[in-house]
Amino acid sequence: MRVPLSWLREYAALPEGATPDDVFASLVSVGFEEEEVFAFDVTGPVVVGQVLSFEVEPQKNGKNIRWCQVDVGEANGGVRGIICGAQNFVPGDKVVVTLPGAVLPGPFPIAARKTYGHTSDGMIAAAGELGLTDDADGIIRLVEWGLGDVEVGTDAIGLLGLDDVAVDVNVTPDRGYALSMRGLAREYALATGVAFTDPADRPASETEPGTGFELTVADDAPIRGRQGVKQFVVRTVNGVDPSAPTPTWMRSRLQLAGMRSLGLLVDITNYVMLELGNPIHGYDADRLTGGIAVRRAAAGEKLTTLDGVERALSPEDLLITDGSGPIGLAGVMGGATTELGPETTNVVVEAACFEQVSIARTARRHRLPSEASKRFERGVDPLIARQAAQRVVDLMVSLAGGTAGERGAELGAVYEPEMIALPAGFAAGLVGVDYAPERVREILELIGCAVTPTADGFDVEAPSWRPDIEDKWSLTEEIARVDGLEKVPSILPAPPAGSRGYTREQHARRQVADALAASGLVEVQAFPFVNEEENTLHATASGEKVPAIRLQNALDQTVPFLRRSLIPGLVRTAHRNLARGATNLSLFEIGNVFLPEPGVAYGTDFNLPRAVHPTPEQLEALYASIPPQPRHVALLFAGDVVEKQPGRAAEAAGLGVALDAVRVIAEGAGVAIDVAQGERAALHPGRTGVLSVAGETVGYVGELRPDVAKDADLVGRVTVAELDLDRVIALAGTRVTASSLSTYPAATQDVSLVVDAALPAADLRAALEEGAGDLLEHVRLVDDYRGTGIGDGRKSLTFALRFRAPDRTLTAAEATEAKTAGVAVAEARFGAHIRD
Predict the structure, then answer these.
(1) In this prediction, what percent of the chain has a pLDDT beyond 90?
(2) Domains of the chain (ranges plus CATH)?
(3) Helix (H, G, I), strand (E, B), or coil: what is residue 800?
């Protein structure tokens, strides 16, 4: 919210000489964030001049320039010759002249310069050149600005409000009252202790409900328990002059506040919105058909809004209508058919208070954020509409020459605030500052609360403009904020007795992540939202449909489900990186997946008591209302794992690289992971492995099917793996046994066994380990041969064996005996025989 200081000074007694930094410091002390300073960046001399005469001089480039004689006053050098290319003024017009030495926004210094065969001794200025508008319009004719009687030579900087400055502060979503001069002036007064004058303390005429103007609220306006419209006030103004100029003080304030001047009638509605915080809408009364009705949209209805866009309406949209149909999206934007224009002479003024959620959803549904919706969705004072409407009427009467109409109407429920009990000592106990009861009461009354002492503290009624204050916790936040957040002590909580840092599970997860990062993978964090097809494809082995959690209010309707697998997020991340030229990818993610059980309903509304430790029964019910959410770890490899370099060819990332990363996970978690051939819906048949720990399946590894990779715009082979990390860590157990290192040399031997081609290598390796006994220290598969000399349906698997004894040097005979024992078990179990 931008705050012009001249405007702020009307409602809060700023000290003389207060600077933007002073105002920033005061507002920051009560919880706002400093943004930036806005000024017109115009320095003098800039004065009022009068065009005495000009000569039109055609140029070779087809342009006509005017060689003008302009009187800028005796004190400023009298009559000066100035070149001007604008064509919208005549002799006798009073204009704004920037003299040599002036500097305009840009910066653009003004100097006497020779051009078009003359020396131009200054410049006749347009509003855009002074920063008063963003439009590239003609020069300022002061008669059109209502300043035709100003004396020649007058300082134009003060005359046009160019000496004003605005500070911009960030207003958090819960403090919508501060999106107004009324709210921020009150906050400045709170911070500094200066006097505050409420701009809403103006008399407002009262119109009996249902009389004078036809105004109705349909029965369908409330929806899903929401009222829709809380208050609706209509006033009328007749005989306005739409061509009347916007006063310079209003024009400059609107510009500093970030709003363009759009003509006096619209400027007045915007000005009052910024002043009081209640959005205002004006209708051309002569373009209305009958009265006004507030209702929900019907199926198939359309509305062309003020931005010229025709919008298909939703049955949940709250509309303003007349006899012809929709004339506005309530609280968001008006319709084009009844907008105020250059021919408007009679105005219907609307000031309303709409329900927050309804307006927020309409604005998002139509992707139509507006200054009005920004305020309504944060909460508007339900008692300000009458004063806001009256303020608009008064300004249209005084500035546009109108007459207040006798017709008007009001509808709306009576505001009934709830009483909040604030126990004695509650704020002090929660914040850690010893607030005296008198100080607590003083602060609450300063922010506008009505406070009644009780035997155990206070009963507090929050002001109507603070919908965010709804309980004793929010009252305590206000007490701490106003008294000074710097007084809140910084105390580190004491760790619970017996605390030893990370839990075993946390330590194991970090160990896995560190090991993957150290081995060259990059950790990413993807959004946990997917579509139904991705859940079916990546979370199942056979592609069957599985239950998934659907979000009620998804950020993106194309991905409304919570993920059952991490792979879709990694695929999207890979696609994004490939599109930006990163072709070699080694990615991993550790995150939660959401695995609802079939037939179980989740998402039940559940409210736990505040500031009270929940009971075991309450915790059990809470956990039962959400689906299982185990942590998984997933990997993705694409492109080359080793780039081409002198003396070495590029090495593509394939299944072997993914298996190596799986082994890194196993070592980090402290388990042994076995691999057996398997299948997954998204993976290539024959290039998919099932991962298990102690016989229990914990994940899978494999190559994406070519069609799946192509659909994601991924080129080449893409290898992925996913494991249930929580289960892997659980299977690792809690005990870690460190084996002693033998000082005796190892004996190494190889063995090649011919077995059935369908036999998993892991099963054969397990048989060798079992038969060889304790002397076998390590076994590794080094070759898988299928072809000539082996036979159809058969394969030769070669294992490298390493034997070692803890207490002696093994002989070759002992190593051979252990190997032979392993082969014997493999032969008995699988019919294996040593390859000839």
Answers:
(1) 63
(2) 2-40+165-192 (3.30.56.10), 46-159 (2.40.50.140), 215-412 (3.50.40.10), 419-483 (3.30.56.10), 504-604+613-731 (3.30.930.10), 747-834 (3.30.70.380)
(3) strand
